[in-house]
C-alpha cells in the first residue's frame, strides 16, 4: 500500500478541530500572550490581536490546510506533485525543510518550559514552594533562580519526564494516540481555565485588572505594535512550521476547510482571551505589576497565589493547566517531524518517534537547559541558547516558511488551490487574491520588523 492508502483520517470534524485547537493553544496562549498583553498596554494589545486573527490568522490557516490536504503527505512532500498541468519544481520542498527546522527549534526550548512547569508542580506538592506566608518578588526571583536556572539535574529530569509522556501518547498513532488524548485533555484544560477565571474575577479589586485587560488605550495602538501583534498570531496558531499542514493531511476531502479554519481561529482567540482573565484580575487585586515579561507566570503569579485563599490548590490547578496546554501542542509539533521521517525514510513509527524525541532532547533540550546553567556565558547572535532557539525559529524560519507557503498557493498551485478550498466562487476569489497579493506584503513587514 502507498502512504496515502495507509493514512488514517480524523474520526470527525470535532476531533480535528479539538486537535488543532490543542496544537494552537499551548504556551502561546497561556504563557506568551498574557505577558505580551502586560508589556504592551493591556486592552490595546488584546484588541489588535483579535483584528490580526482576522487579517492574517484565518487566511493563513486556510493556506496551510489547502497545502496539507491537497497531497495528504508529510510537510516536505506537500510542496510537490503537479499543478495546472506542470510538475512542481523540487526547490519548493525547501519550505518543508525550513518548517521542520523551525519545529525542531521550538521543541528545543518548549519541552524545557514543560520541565519548568513540572518543577513548580513538584515544589507545590512537596511544600518546597510554600504559600503559608505571602511571598514577595525577592523570594520568587530567588526561587526561580535556585530551582530553575541553577537546578541543572532537576530540570533535565523533569524535561525528560515530559518527553517520555509525549512518547507514550505518540506511539499509539494519530487516532488512538493524539486524537484520543486531546479528547480528554482539551475538556480538562477548559475546566481548569474556567475554574481559574471564576476564582480571579471574584477577587476584591479584580475590576481594575479587567479594565486594564479589556479597555483599549487607543493612544497605545501604533503601526509598530500592530505588526508585532501580527507576529504573535503566527506563534499562537503554530503557523509556518508544518503543524497545520501535517494535521490537515489527515483530513477528509469532504471536510469544509473554511468552517474548520474559522472555528480554529475563534477557539484560539477565545482561549487566549480567557487566559488573560485568569491572570490580570488577580495581579491587580494584589498589587503585582503586570509587565514582568516572560517570567510573569513563574515569578509574579506565585506572589498572587500566596496572597489568595486556597492559593496552593489554585496554583496546582494553574500549573496543571499549563502542562495540559503544553502537551496538546508538543504532541502535534513532534508529529510534523515524525510523519516526515516515516514517509521520507520508510522508518517504522516507533523508531521514528524514538529518533525524533531522542535527537531533539540531546541536541535541543539539553543545550537549552545548559544555556541557563553551565553554558550561560555562551551566546548565539547575542542571545542565550534558549532565547536563540526561540528567536531563530519564531522570527526567521516560521516567517519565511509562511511567506513561501502563501507564494506557493498564489503563484504555483493557483486554480488547484481554489479547487482544494472548495468554497463559493466569490469567497474563494477574494481569499485567493488576498493570499496572492496582500499576505506576502504583510509577512514581509512582520519579517523586517522582527529582525
Automatic annotation (TrEMBL):
The chain crosses the membrane at residues 12-31, 43-63, 94-118, 152-170, 182-201, 221-245, 266-288, 308-341, 353-371, 391-413, 434-450. Pfam families: SNF. It is a multi-pass membrane protein. InterPro entries: Na/ntran_symport (IPR000175), SNS_sf (IPR037272), YocR/YhdH-like (IPR047218). One of its GO terms (molecular function) is symporter activity. It comes from the Bacteria. This is Transporter.
Amino acid at each position: 500500500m502507498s502512504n496515502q492508502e495507509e493514512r488514517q483520517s480524523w474520526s470527525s470534524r470535532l476531533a480535528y478541530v479539538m486537535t488543532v485547537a490543542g496544537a494552537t493553544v499551548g504556551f502561546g496562549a497561556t504563557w506568551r500572550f498574557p505577558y505580551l498583553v502586560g508589556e504592551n498596554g493591556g486592552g490595546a494589545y488584546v484588541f489588535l490581536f483579535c483584528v490580526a486573527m482576522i487579517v492574517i490568522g484565518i487566511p493563513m490557516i486556510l493556506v496551510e490546510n489547502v497545502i496539507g490536504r491537497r497531497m495528504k503527505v508529510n510537510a516536505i512532500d506537500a510542496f510537490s506533485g503537479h499543478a495546472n498541468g506542470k510538475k512542481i519544481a523540487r526547490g519548493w520542498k525547501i519550505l518543508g525543510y525550513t518548517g521542520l527546522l523551525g519545529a525542531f527549534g521550538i521543541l528545543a526550548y518548549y519541552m524545557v518550559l514543560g520541565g519548568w512547569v513540572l518543577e513548580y508542580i513538584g515544589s507545590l506538592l512537596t511544600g518546597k514552594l510554600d504559600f503559608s506566608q505571602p511571598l514577595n518578588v525577592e523570594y520568587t526571583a530567588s526561587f526561580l533562580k535556585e530551582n530553575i536556572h541553577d537546578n541543572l539535574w532537576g530540570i533535565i529530569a523533569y524535561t525528560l519526564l515530559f518527553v517520555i509522556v509525549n512518547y507514550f501518547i505518540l506511539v499509539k498513532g494519530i487516532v488512538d494516540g493524539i486524537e484520543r488524548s486531546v479528547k480528554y485533555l482539551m475538556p480538562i484544560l477548559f475546566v481548569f481555565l474556567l475554574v481559574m477565571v471564576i476564582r480571579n474575577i471574584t477577587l476584591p479589586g479584580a475590576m481594575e485588572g479587567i479594565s486594564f485587560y479589556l479597555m483599549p488605550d487607543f493612544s497605545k495602538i501604533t503601526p509598530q505594535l500592530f505588526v508585532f501583534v501580527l507576529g504573535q498570531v503566527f506563534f499562537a496558531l503554530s503557523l509556518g512550521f508544518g503543524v497545520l499542514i501535517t494535521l490537515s493531511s489527515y483530513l477528509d476531502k469532504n471536510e469544509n476547510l473554511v468552517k474548520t479554519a474559522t472555528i480554529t481561529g475563534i477557539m484560539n482567540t477565545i482561549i487566549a482571551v480567557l487566559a488573560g482573565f485568569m491572570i490580570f484580575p488577580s495581579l491587580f487585586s494584589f498589587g503585582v505589576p503586570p509587565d514582568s515579561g516572560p517570567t510573569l507566570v513563574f515569578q509574579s503569579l506565585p506572589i498572587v497565589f500566596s496572597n489568595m485563599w486556597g492559593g496552593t490548590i489554585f496554583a496546582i490547578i494553574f500549573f496543571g493547566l499549563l502542562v495540559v496546554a503544553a502537551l496538546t501542542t508538543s504532541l502535534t509539533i513532534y508529529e510534523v517531524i515524525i510523519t516526515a521521517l516515516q514517509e521520507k525514510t520508510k522508518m517504522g513509527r516507533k523508531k521514528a518517534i524514538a529518533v525524533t524525541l531522542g535527537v531533539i532532547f540531546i541536541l535541543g533540550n539539553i543545550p537549552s537547559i545548559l544555556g541557563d546553567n553551565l553554558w550561560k556565558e555562551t551566546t548565539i547572535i547575542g542571545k542565550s541558547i534558549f532565547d536563540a532557539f526561540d528567536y531563530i525559529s519564531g522570527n526567521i524560519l516560521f516567517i519565511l516558511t509562511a511567506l513561501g507557503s502563501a507564494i506557493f498557493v498564489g503563484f504555483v498551485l493557483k486554480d488547484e488551490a481554489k479547487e482544494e478550498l472548495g468554497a463559493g466562487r466569490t469567497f474563494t476569489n477574494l481569499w485567493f487574491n488576498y493570499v496572492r497579493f496582500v499576505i506576502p506584503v504583510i509577512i514581509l513587514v512582520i519579517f523586517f520588523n522582527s529582525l
